[in-house]
Write a structure and sequence with these properties.
single chain; 247 residues; alpha/beta; Spore Coat Polysaccharide Biosynthesis Protein SpsA, Chain A; 9-stranded mixed sheet; two-stranded antiparallel sheet; 6 helices
């Protein structure tokens, strides 16, 4: 199964530290964050990866060319080895910011599996079982499945509510609250969902697409154990570095 990594954002909260590179190349525990994601996906059995780039995607392309084992120049397919596993990686660059949903629609021609994973390019959940998430997705009838995990201070993320059958019923805005289920930044989606997104339109997965799917009963939660590691801020990079060095 394929994973689409959303890595086109400007990373404004890190720009003072790493203005010369996309956020996914920011160093974490001595390695570009993208290498941690590659390892995580490879160990999870996901070896076909598309990077949905945007801001400074040309810098990311240059890094890929120096890192890959070989390159299919006619199709721009990079072969990269992580943890003794060979990955097939492709890269695209959106022409202007389209948001997470619009960016996903932009890369539709690169999507090879149905369903497919969507991964936020600034976070990961080490304990996530990709295979079990895929099994649950099939059992729930398709649509979309969202990985959720529980954190003690959920306010910065907003929370996700779901019923006993794991059908997501509501999203709550960011607020000062203690504890809650939060969006883990990993989704498994049926390709038909992209038909609801107009091309070249700025759309948010989190605030537009998912609430609409939840209202229709087509969005389910997949529970996974913490931690949720988010490197989108200097503090997040510090926390992630501490975690990685402790493994």
């Amino acid at each position: 199964m394929q994973a689409i990594v959303l890595c086109g954002g400007k990373g404004t909260r890190l720009s003072a530290l790493y203005a010369d590179r996309p956020k996914i190349l920011a160093p974490v525990a001595g390695r570009p964050f993208i290498e941690w994601q590659f390892d995580w996906l490879a160990h999870g059995g996901v070896t076909d990866i598309h990077l949905a780039g945007g801001h400074l995607a040309d810098v990311l392309r240059c890094w890929m060319e120096t890192r890959c084992l070989n390159l299919n120049t006619s199709q721009a397919i990079y072969s990269i080895r992580c943890s003794e596993i060979d990955l097939r990686v492709t890269l695209s660059k959106e022409t202007y910011p389209l948001g997470t949903g619009g960016g996903l629609k932009f890369v539709e021609p690169f999507i090879k599996s149905d369903p497919f994973f969507v991964i936020n390019g600034d976070s990961l959940i080490p304990s996530l079982n990709f295979g079990a998430m895929a099994d649950q997705h099939v059992e729930s009838g398709g649509g979309a499945t969202l990985a959720v995990t529980r954190i003690e201070e959920a306010g910065r993320y907003g929370t996700v509510e779901f019923n006993e059958s794991l059908r997501i019923t509501a999203f709550r805005e960011k607020a000062s609250r203690v504890g809650g289920w939060v969006n883990g930044g990993v989704y498994l989606m049926a390709r038909i969902i992209l038909a609801n997104i107009q091309p070249e339109t700025t759309v948010s997965i989190e605030t537009e697409l998912f609430p609409a799917l939840a209202e229709q009963g087509g969005l389910h939660a997949f529970i996974t154990q913490p931690p949720l590691l988010d490197m989108g801020t200097p503090e997040g990079i510090g926390n992630m570095t501490t975690y990685m060095c402790g493994q």
